[in-house]
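input
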Amino acid sequence: MTVTVDLLEEIVTPPKRGRDREARVARRSRRPDHIRAVIKHVSLILVGLVMIYPLLWMLSSSFKPDALIFRDPSLLPAEFDFSHYADGWNALSHPFSLYLLNSAIIVLGSLIGNLLTCSMAAYAFARLEFRGRKLAFGVMLLTLMLPAQVVLIPQYVIFANLEWVNTFLPLIVPKFLATDAFFIFLMVQFFRGLPREIDEAAKIDGAGYWRIYFRILLPLSVPALATTAIFTFIWTWNDFFSQLVYLTRPEMLTAPVALRNYVDATSGASWGSLFAMSVITLVPVFLVFLFGQRFLIRGIATSGLK
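output
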């Protein structure tokens, strides 16, 4: 009877030596996964450091004396000079706050215009049935392939005849005409992912097209709207070419154009002040991306652009 019990225990419970061997095999099989994970993370960290090095170098140079900026390549300044921020703020004919304010006005107008009109155009393409809808949508997509330089001269002639040069109107008014086809396409993809039963249920309750748009689709489209807002802010805030073309008076300049004039005004001598103002100009973009990145990822993932 005792022998039978021992045999049953050996059958039900594997020997300790067998269990140890299986554990070692499992550890060895997991080891390559850990090694690959470590290599991947180290590689990503190194690539990230290479990409962020110019930004860190500019931040470090804004605190270095002018004589050490190009002579000392280290990121940690040997000597700290905090006067660059005060000198750069008042280096041009107007305080740098004026140029930041001009950029903020253009960004605010562009945000409102793109969020309102691009979402309305996307709603029409995604939800409404009208003659020539597919053709109009195709023509709209074709404008994505049209370089901005092609339409620059005709647009400038139109705005010059309207006496809009040296005003913010050429940079803001087109945004209220749904001219950014990329954001229309992004929102169309998002609207198409929403079930049409929502619209049909709203129509049964007596809701019209405008009520469906404002009360149902827009609240559900927060990720796509947030993505549009973030991209609009970054692209408009960093825009240099369009603002350089339409804004020439010193009091109308924006931050990117003012930085270019700052180099001309200082004859390339005060690099520290230039880097200091560049850091200040990058702070809003950094904050917007930092607090809006989760909406950006959700908007891109749910709109099918990935």
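quick obs: The chain is about 75% helix and 0% strand.
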